[in-house]
Amino acid sequence: MKSENTERLDKIRHLNKETGEGLLFCYKVLKEFDYDEQRALEYMKFDAFERHILIRY
Q1: Residue 8, pLDDT score
Q2: Can you tell me the distance from the alpha carbon of 57 to that of 45, in angstroms, rounded to the nearest whole number?
Q3: DSSP states of 15-37 as a string?
Q4: Contact yes or no for 26/16 (Cβ under 8 A)
Q5: What is the pLDDT of residue 38?
Q6: By C-alpha distance, which of 49, 36, 44, 39 is closest to 18?
Q7: Could you give the CA distance from residue 7 to residue 51 in angstroms, rounded to a whole number?
Q8: pLDDT tens, 5-49?
Q9: pLDDT of the residue at 46
Q10: Whole-angstrom distance, CA of residue 3 vs CA of residue 24
């Protein structure tokens, strides 16, 4: 059985592979969505995502 940290790291790596974003950024987005990978991926693929990132960071 995987530990919680290992599962989180796997989610971060998968999101990184799917989006091409950096690992730290993927971690921050996943953390914002309580490690819900599907919601984080939908958010990152959403058109307004880029505008939101430019304003927020």
Answers
A1: 94
A2: 18
A3: HHHHH---HHHHHHHHHHTTT-H
A4: yes
A5: 93
A6: 44
A7: 30
A8: 999 999 999 999 998 888 998 999 999 999 999 999 988 887 656
A9: 79
A10: 20
For residue 46, CA distances in Å to 39, 52, 53 come to 11, 10, 12
| Size of the chain in residues | 57
Report the distance separating Cα 8 and Cα 31, nearest Å.
9
Token look-up 């530990």 returns 3
Q: How far is the C-alpha of 54 from the C-alpha of 57, rounded, in Å? A: 6
pTM of the entire predicted model: 0.75
19 close to 41: Cβ distance less than 8 angstroms = yes
Copy the structure tokens of residue 2.
């995987």
Q: Longest C-alpha distance within the chain, in Å?
A: 40
